[in-house]
Amino acid sequence: MILSLYYKIWVDAIVFEKTKHGDMRNWKSFTLIPISILQGINLLTIFFWLVTFDIKLDIFFDFNLFPGGMLDRFLSGFITLFLPFIILNYFLIFKGQKYDVLIKKYKYQQGKYYLIYFLATILIFIMPIVIGKWIL
Amino acid sequence: MYNYLNDGITIDAAVTGVSAFGFANEVKSELLQLGMQGADWGLAGARYVKVVRGAGIVGSVFGMGVSGYHIYTDFSQDGIDAVNGWDVTDFGVGAAGLGATIFLASNPVGWVIAGSATIYFGARFIYDISTKP
Q1: pTM of the complete model
Q2: Residue B46 pLDDT
Q3: What residues contact residue B68 under an 8 Å CB cut-off, 6+ apart?
């Protein structure tokens, strides 16, 4: 069920990117990176909700390599949240051109699944923070 | 109203931040001017737009990675009140930039949003480097 939804979103994203912007940029990197970011946010949302149940996990690696703090934190966030999904998605979707099989198997939804997934991911993460901090 | 001064941001730092925004905006203007110097504005413009589209996703990854780190660590240590307003703003800007890069890449509105997000994170980065050794 979840794996099927995952593939449906991927097919929607790939065909959307190919048909809308395929002539102007590399569709592989412009689907792999955005979806990996969104999955990283999904993971962050899960950890965020675990904290509300008092399950606090130290998920980030701490670095002190660069001047300032932003690059260190970016590196930490990138390794914890995005890199695992880039690798996972590469092996599940791109290796051996599996996307060709998936595109034949699942129907293209005109980018609707992709858009819903994007909006749901952002809102499910950000809304509780905004409500908890500024409204309640 | 949320008071950013409580987060240790001084007036001097705010001035530095404004200067950083000015610098980043100047870089964008210089890039535009450089493109327009050639006789073929269409080609230069297309190149500029290509850079902005590519930079949009870089800015979004950077901003969301950093703000995600901050939001989670602040929340897990001291609860919802410890989450910094700047980080929530950064996350929102990163999300807007990502959305524009994905769904509005062939639209000038999308180029402006993605380009602005990149400039915003560029300025935040310059601010960070200039205020914290």
Answers
A1: 0.80
A2: 60
A3: A40, A41, A44, A77, A81, B91
